[in-house]
Design a protein that fits this description.
This protein is mainly beta. 11% of the residues lie in helices and 45% in strands. Pfam families: MATH_2.
Length: 343
């Protein structure tokens, strides 16, 4: 009887051990199967990320992959066109040994039809290569920080160590699903710009002083008055003020502002640097009231810069208001001019 009880205890302990081990193993397997794929883990030095968008230039999908997964010779895709040139995708499913691709998948893009290109041709390319992760429905994107320059001596660019075989063939990683794999390429040709926008800031440009005499000052209304427009650089300007004051100076001070207007014909319309000396002329001597401002004036007309207090109203009688008139002056000391010129 005692032996029977002992045997029963052994059987129970063995069953508990086997059940616990099986549960732990099952949990481990499920955890591995559902683990999030990390694109930066053990995949080389080139920048890479997972993205949802398909490659824009080429996708190659190979079914029954197990038939060819041990082949060392490259697979060459059909010719495809991207950015005005013709290309092929070159795939080494067991790595290009001559390019350090041992134990890796290697993938390249080769330019084709170069006989039709001019002598000394060069094509700079922003190249991205892709491996589809079917489990996550995303593309592992491999790129480089430098543009690839294709020429007669270098007709093929890519990555010898695109992805380790240990990662690529691991069924938990999701690159081979239902015995199918997909690779891709995205090719953007970098065309050197032929023109540049050159901005020059002119000091004391021609015809840079403008005078504005305001008559019947005492009868002016509470509103903004504007001068006629004057041209300095590539842009028209005008002065404006409210005789009753603005902002912090109202109603005890006189403001003055410079407004940027439109551009002369055929001018390059950009933000314009304007630095101006604003003056209220002393009509009985040589002691004008002064203010200065400098700013980038936006393209849209009507922006203004200036001051809300160039003089107090009570001081106008000290030679600034004569025969019921005052005189403002604007001296454009710096203004920008923009041209489009060859590089």
């Amino acid at each position: 009887m005692e032996n029977g009880r002992w045997n029963l205890r052994v059987i129970c302990l063995a069953f508990f051990f086997v059940t616990s081990f099986s549960s732990e193993f099952l949990i481990q397997q499920v955890t591995e199967y559902n683990s999030s794929y990390n694109p930066k883990a053990n995949l080389g030095m080139h920048p890479r990320e997972l993205r949802t968008e398909r490659p824009s230039s080429k996708i190659v999908t190979i079914g029954n992959f197990s038939v060819v997964m041990e082949r060392s010779e490259p697979y060459e895709s059909s010719v495809f066109e991207a950015s005005g040139y013709k290309w092929r995708l070159i795939l080494y499913v067991t790595g290009n040994k001559e390019d350090g691709g041992n134990n890796h998948v290697s993938l390249y893009v080769r330019i084709e039809d170069t006989e039709s290109l001019p002598t000394g041709w060069e094509v700079d390319v922003d190249l991205k290569l892709f491996v589809f992760n079917a489990r996550q429905r995303k593309y592992l994107t491999i790129t480089d920080q430098a543009a690839k320059r294709y020429n007669q001596e270098n007709r093929e660019w890519g990555f010898g160590q695109l992805i380790p075989l240990s990662t690529f063939r691991n069924p938990n990683q999701g690159f081979i699903v239902q015995n199918t794999v997909s690779f891709g390429a995205e090719i953007f040709v970098i065309k050197p710009v032929e023109q540049q926008e050159r901005v020059r800031i002119l000091s004391n440009p021609p015809d840079n002083v403008f005078s504005w005499r305001i008559l019947h000052f005492s009868s002016l209304e509470d509103r903004i008055y504007y001068s006629s427009e004057f041209l300095v650089g590539d842009r028209f300007w005008r002065l404006g003020f409210n005789p009753k004051g603005e902002g912090e100076g109202r109603p005890h001070a006189i403001p003055i502002f410079l407004y940027a207007q439109g551009f002369k014909p055929n001018a390059v319309e950009t933000s314009t640097w304007g630095a101006v000396n604003l003056r209220l002329r002393h009509q009985l001597g040589s002691n004008p009231k002064r203010a200065s401002s400098a700013a980038w004036y936006p393209i849209q007309p009507g922006h203004r810069e200036g001051v809300s207090n160039i003089i107090l109203r009570k001081d106008l009688q000290d030679g600034y208001l004569v025969r019921d008139s005052i005189v403002f002056e604007a001296e454009m000391v710096r203004v920008s001019v923009t041209n489009i010129v060859p590089v």
